[in-house]
Amino acid sequence: MTLFEASTGRHCHNAVSPLHSSVYFAPEPGDELAALGLERGAMVYLASRAAPLGTVDAGTVTATFYNFNHQHVQRHIPAAWTVTTPEAVLTARLRGADRTLRRLLGPEVIMSTQMTEAAELALHATEACRREARPLYAANADLPVPEEPHLALWHAATLLREHRGDGHLAALAIAGLSGIEALVLHNATGRAPTSALFMRTRGWSAQQWDTARDQLRERGLLDEAGDLTQAGTALRGETEVLTDRLDAAPYDHLGPAATARLTELAGGFSKTLRAAGAFPAVHFGKG
Question: Is 161's pLDDT higher than 50?
Answer without folding.
Answer: yes
